[in-house]
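re: ur question from earlier - yeah i can do the single chain one, its not a big deal. heres the input i used so u can compare w yours
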Amino acid sequence: MYANINFPKQDEHHVVNISLCNKNKEETLKIVAEYPVVLQHLNGRKWKLRYNSIEEVDGGYIGRVTLDTQQGNIYTISDKWKVDTAFISIDRTIVCEKVKPGSSVRITTDFRCKDANASSFDDYQFVVPSSLYNKNDTDNDGIDDYLGTFLQDYKDDRNPSLSVTSFSKPSNVFISLIRADVPTKDESITREQIEQRHFIHDTDIGSLGLAPSEYDTREFILRCDYPFYERNTFCLNVDGSEWAAYKAVEEGMTFHASYILQIGEATSLTDAAWSTTMLQMDRILNDEVRLPFSLEEAKKYRRELVHHSFKEFKDKKGAPAGYFIHFSPRELYGSQNLLEYGFCGQQTMLSYDMLQAAIEVQSTEYRERALKTIDFLVNHCIAPSGLPEGIYNVDKEEFVYWMTGILFPFQYSESREVLEEYLGDQVVNALMEIASELKMVKGNYCRSMVDTMHYLLLCYLQEKEEGYEHKDWLKAVVKFCDKMIAIQNENGSWNRGYSMDGEPLTNPPEWFGANELEQGSGAIFPAEVLVELYKYTGDNKYMEAARRAADFVRRSYVEEVKYMGGLNDTTHKKSVKIDATGVMFAMRTMLVVYEQTKDPELLVGAHDAAKILGTWVYLWDIPFDNNTLLGKHGFKTTGWAGCDVIPAGSYVECVFPEFVPDLLRIAEYCKDEKLAVLAKIVTRGMHHGLSMPQNMYGYAMPGIQCEGYMTSLWLSDTTYKNFSGAVAKNKGDDNDTTNGFVNGQALYNLDCLNQRYGTLDFDSIIKQVLT
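and the output i got, formated as tokens:
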């Protein structure tokens, strides 16, 4: 495929026409910038501009336009266009020739894109990294499930690879609009600016977006703004209010912005998005990811924090025991009374980590505390059906349900005033009714149950290898897996949630799914424990159930890039959604079944999932205001994965390290160096934010890392309260919460790397993976 560019005259000025042609010189896709430059004054008018002149220079073209506003401002905009084999570059320079005091501007370009073979907007698919996948439509009603519109824009600091990718199914071609120059400066946005909605802001942060075309139903638009303009967004509120920044300009001032239109052929949206990720890895990624401490040091302090979080209550029924990690990082462990198992608490994962630590550092106390944690679970926290409970209230000596993660404050209070102290008015408005309905149901999430039992089995195997037999542990895992086989759906899936008897839950549908694919998104979890039990027992029934699930995952979620259901909790009333964790578990499911069956389609599926997972990973370091927490402490975003708990992409969080070993195995099977590099930057980069003696982040003790960090704004128009959590925070804040799985997943990754590769040095690891 190659591109032709020309600048025909229209009304005595020049527009931009780009034709993408196949090897037979047939035009497959056309890009038009009818007004290459749109200049907007804050609180003033907008000018749609075409070039006054076109000059051929240095193998490219320079389009120039001078705008005399007739009100005291004169601007000259020069765009240098250059066509390469794989992309078209646009280097933009804005010169402020004459400017009235107090002026501020924003520059926009719309690219109208049309496949000659497309019949409607339905023929196009999109990826905006960490925010929009295909069309974010898992309930299949034809509209985006969250914003309710496809007119969407995303600030650069919400965009891990600074790109928007479009894929045309009829012709198998793609276009990606990329911010070519990496932003290096930003400052905190004030509440006054949030109130204004359109405001002057000293920033390098622009935005990229897309929309259906208003000119032709067979077109779509890719768009860039500098500084940013988000026409519909959850950054401010659940209503999707717009906001925009403007650059203050002075006479004689010059500023720049650069873009790339990447073009090419692809077999799928996955391949198109991966092509863009690889291009940006080559262009902007610095994979060194420096830390002020070693990974070995990090492991030591993470283990110590987990170890000292242990509490046991000998005076309570059954002597509850476990790792109580759910607290503000600015406090010591706090007065926790809820013992969480799968998901946030991850008791058995932490036990597995500490059993590994006990062997490495020869600590009997590490092992004894892990054993007490597991014994209480096995003896007291598993229902007669074989399904494990999710949360145990030590004070009340009873189980509680559902209210984990974002919903956690609903465990403590039904008072709206108290809840808003923790969650803000918008989230309480969205979730109050659903939380009330959930309180009436006794059950658990499929993910949480599998989390618990998978790592229980690994603990059993670890102990047996050391010469200790815990038959009751194995019996619990077998009973659970047998129950999962009994309740597996005919199509190979499992439901998202179950009663403690094993009845599938479907109400409220916003939380448990409105159709077969949403309800069946529990399919992405059980294979990991079923395959592990098959490997130990040799009983093929476990392998067959896992194989059926992997087939369901591959045919349901991979091709259309609809990886859903990984999150238990969300700040949006529609809980079943596309998210990074859904990609991770789908990838693992296909991988572990492939490793036993050698079904090549499953390896292709796992590889495709890994490629999409790569789009969630930040390839650059977002600039933070030096006065923010993250700015003061040198937090770097390279290697962190975006979290789409609400469709905003304004937040990075800690899940990915658990899946790095899976990613490396896929890289090894496929000899994919880019995936191995992603594993490196995730492992190293996601140790930023960890409190260490060298850099404490203002936290109460070493070894603390928050669940997530704010890379932009998120529901920041809410009534301001000084609560924990993520909403109503500003860019550069943490979410003021640490959970059990934060250190659990990081330690699991580091231990797996040492066990498989004998080192934490990634130069050595990558060499082993690729040879």
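Residues 1 and 23 are 6 Å apart (CA to CA). not sure if urs matches, ping me
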